[in-house]
Amino acid sequence: MVAAVEPAGPRPRPVTPARVGLYAFLVITALFFLTPLYVMLVTSFKTMPEIRQGNLLGLPAEPSLQAWGHAWSAACTGLACNGISVGFFNSVKILVPSVIVSIAVGSLTGYALSFWRVRGASALFGALMIVAFVPYQIFIYPLVRIFATIGINNSIPGIVAIHTIFGLPTMTLLFRNYFASLPIELFKAARVDGAGFFRIYSSVMMPMATPMLIVAVILQVTGIWNDFILGLVFAGRENLPMTVQLNNIVNSTQGERLYNVDMAATLLTALVPLVVYFASGRWFVRGIAAGAVKG
Amino acid sequence: MLALRPRLASKLSAWLALSPATTILVVVYVGCTAWTVWISMTASRMLPSSTFVGLRQYDALFANERWQISVSNLVVFGVLFMIASLVLGFLLAVAIDQRVRAENVLRSVFLYPFSMSFIVTGLVWQWLLNPTYGIQAVGRGFGFETFRFDWIVRQETVIYCLVIAGVWHAAGLVMAIMLAGLRGIDEDIWKAARVDGLPPWRVYVSIVIPMMGASFATAAVLLATSVVRLYDLSVAMTNGGPGIASEVPAKFVMDHLFERQNIGLATAAATSMLITVAAVVAPWIYIQSRRRRAA
Amino acid sequence: MSTRDQRCEVSVRGVDIGFGRVKVLEKLNLDIAQSEFIVLLGPSGCGKSTLLNAIAGLLDVNDGQIWIGGRNVTWEEPKDRGIAMVFQSYALYPRMTVRGNMSFGLRVAGMPAAEIQKRVTEAAAMLKITNLLDRRPSELSGGQRQRVAIGRALVRDAGVFLFDEPLSNLDAQLRVELRVEIKRLHQRLSATMIYVTHDQIEALTLADRIAVMQGGVIQQLDTPQKVYREPINRFVASFVGSPSMNFVPGRIEGANGVLAFVGGDLTIPLQGYAFRSPAAPGPAVLGVRPEHVLAGGAAGPAAIQAPIEMIEPMGADSLVWCRMPSGASFSVRVDGEARVAPGGTLPVSFPATALSLFDDGPGERL
């Protein structure tokens, strides 16, 4: 190649060190992010003797579902040995009404704050945005006392109320911002057509808010499923959610730790948010972005 | 009068719709906060007392070694976790923004930990950092007999383990926010910079980063609130140990409320957390509201 | 900025550009002379911005070559091509002052501070933005921002300026003002300028030559007058000119060199029309611009009486909508003072020298 080539067509793109470094960085960080998931998976399929031999990263020699079965139905949380399935169903019982009620209250509040000129509306909204940052520890003792007084402490209604209370700022923000982005003419047209407050909400606004509903559901399902502290305090011993049960299985066992069972139980607990995450794709990111623009 | 009726009905409906939010704001967010602050100034121990003792609980609190360790842990964790998450998240966003292959796969890989709970995160890393079977064992298995990575069982290093797990959990969130910010930058800016002959790193340093102030602020505020709320991770990963080396303020409050039954001290600690949050968030809200007014 | 000794003609040779399966430009050739002001005009999606980006080096060509100033720059980075560029969105660096925006590229390139200072001062004076030098872009109006963007291009002292719809984000009045400014700049710098726009008025006012593009192909490359008076096909005819050209479907009839256009009851003799190829009878479309229709007294004895449907006064002129004998409407531009009223009639005639004839298939000029 002595004679110079006459340049034509696309630029030649030699593999530059910068490009190699870029991919090296991405691959190494990807490994850092993936290793825990991988280790969880392989550990959960190993037998305890194999785990004791070491070799954290190795594939299971004889893959076994035994740990999964044990985690699901026989692992001990404290004295009871009914597996993490108890926590799973408790979490479902908490999740479904909490998601519905919190979104209903949040969307209604967001709607009322976006279209209706109610006195003090902007003060209410501003206050809700500020209190979203306050740590839960401030409220816990008074709330326990209040809930005990009105008789919903340690119950499903109690924990649903709690998730509604602490979901309110984000849900309100989400829906208010969405409704505020809709053309005000839509609202005016509905008023001219004679629709009232709740009619406009149910027949005009909510049908248009499907994208926000999806985002809100994703946000609340993952958030409530992953909750630990509120479930621990307010759900009551009978209704402890999966995260609490998981922590009990792993961290308060007596005798020998069954690491394969621990990892199987951990994966089972992570399954719901992981499925939501991978199924929802870009919606999840959108939810983060929508929830992130607080204030 | 007749014409006014639908208006009045709508107005009443709006009030009705906002009543749950108003009630929650007044009773929970304002009322419970005031209640907690009040208790922190009484002689309450196991049972609430109404004997006013001024700031004596706070004297006891700040003389308490466990609280001191909790606070210093929070500072160390907060600084390292925020810097590491912001830097790693930003670098990941920049790397992904270089038109790399498999962009969607990489993005999912970096973000999936964020969908899981802190309990799951803590338990996975507890297992990975286990000195007998975890990463230390892997290193020794490769022939490095003296390889030492037992941070999680040593009092002076355990807090860094929390940082590693926290960064693993949150860096993807920062990446998602930063990537959205990067993608929001006008493509013509990049073209203009190329015509100007600026090397890409220079464009990032001198032009892009200064333009991403809002993204950095959003990410920083989100991370900061999760720092103050830090509880689940410590519970699941180390339960505050070894000894009390990885205690954190939120855990201090919870333990003193429910296990040690010292309500006065717990509420004093909670109030201190609130003041910390206010000190972080108030300037940010002030700047935001000023910017909005200017816009 | 001062005297220009470097060569700065631009030549695009057989350029192919596509994204995936979609071909944007195919085997495109374009030669632009030294100091020429050329406008790439076309609707959105016609490939004009793609072509400009390829010339700038912001976009790789799939095939073909780009030559600037006698050099093959196909593989060169934008900064090494001797070009400067102005963008539609201004693309100012938001966190830098005006001075910072104008000088940043030069500083990074390692130019001595005194020389940078001199160039910035000179360019700022030329664009009347000296008093804005210490402001941030967010403190400027749209028109000021675009001046700064032009200033940033000026200090590069390039031989070729590329404009990518620079006035599209401005309101009408500012657009006119800056249009004049750009034209003045061209006369003063005698640099080669390539200017992309979808606004035919900008094209007509600024260009030495216009390249009218559609579907990735240059339809016509000619002076504004030629493009306006002798559009090469129906697309060019309808895209250039406002109010737009009237089209009348019909036939060319006659023999022995005595041809006439017949559309409905309308017959127009074609003596004096410059056919591009030997004319033959057959179906055709007649095109005539509203101001080329002779109306009133000027229409002459052969005028037909067209019934007036509607009048759009436009200040200096009025646009009169008349009905063809065939039933179709056509517009005539008359003096704003002319006494015409709906319901009346207007004598009109069509001078063959100002007409355009197109075939009725692809619409090529006959």
CATH superfamily of chain B: MetI-like
Query: Could you name the ranges of chain C where pLDDT drops below 50 across 5 or more consecutive residues?
Result: none
* Number of DSSP strand runs of chain C: 20
Q: Main beta sheet of chain C, described? A: 6 strands, mixed
Low-confidence residue ranges of chain B: none
- Averaged pLDDT of chain B, please? 90
CATH architecture of chain B, please?
A: Orthogonal Bundle
CATH-defined fold name of the largest domain in chain C: Rossmann fold
Short description:
The complex is a heterotrimer of chains A (295), B (295) and C (366). By secondary structure, chain B is mainly alpha-helical. Chain B contains 13 helices and no strands.
Any descriptors?
heterotrimer, A: 295 residues, mainly alpha, MetI-like fold, C: 366 residues, OB fold (Dihydrolipoamide Acetyltransferase, E2P), 2 domains, 20 strands, transmembrane helix (chain B), membrane (chain B), cell membrane (chain B)
Describe this structure in words.
Chain B: It is found in: Cell membrane. Chain B: Keywords: Cell membrane, Membrane, Transmembrane, Transmembrane helix, Transport. Chain B: The chain crosses the membrane at residues 12-38, 74-97, 109-128, 157-182, 203-228, 263-287. The complex is a heterotrimer of chains A (295), B (295) and C (366). Helix content of chain A is 71%, strand content 0%. The radius of gyration of chain A is 26 Å and the shape is flat. Chain A has helices at residues 17-44, 48-52, 66-73, 85-115, 121-131, 137-150, 156-181, 184-192, 197-208, 210-226, 229-234, 242-251, 259-280, 282-292. Chain A folds into 2 domains: 22-64, no CATH class; 88-241 and 271-292, Orthogonal Bundle (MetI-like fold). Chain A is mostly helical and 295 residues long. In chain A, helix 1 (17-44) crosses helix 13 (259-280), helix 4 runs parallel beside helix 7 and helix 7 runs antiparallel to helix 10. Chain B starts with a helix and ends with a helix. The longest helix of chain B is centred in the first third of the chain and has 36 residues, at 4-39. Chain B has 13 helices and no strands. Chain B is an all-alpha fold and 295 residues long. Chain B has one domain (20-294): MetI-like (MetI-like fold). The model of chain B has no long low-confidence stretch (mean pLDDT 90). Chain C has 366 residues and is of the alpha+beta class. Chain C folds into 2 domains: 10-239, P-loop containing nucleotide triphosphate hydrolases (Rossmann fold, 3-Layer(aba) Sandwich); 252-359, Nucleic acid-binding proteins (OB fold (Dihydrolipoamide Acetyltransferase, E2P)), CATH 2.40.50.140. Chain C is built from 8 helices and 20 strands. In chain C, the strands form 4 sheets. In chain C, strands 6-7-8-3-9-10 form a 6-stranded mixed beta sheet, sandwiched between helices. In chain C, strand 7 (160-164), helix 5 (172-189) and strand 8 form a beta-alpha-beta unit. Chains in contact: A-B, A-C, B-C. Chains A and B meet through helix 1, helix 4, helix 5, helix 6 and helix 7 of A and helix 1, helix 3, helix 4, helix 5 and helix 6 of B.
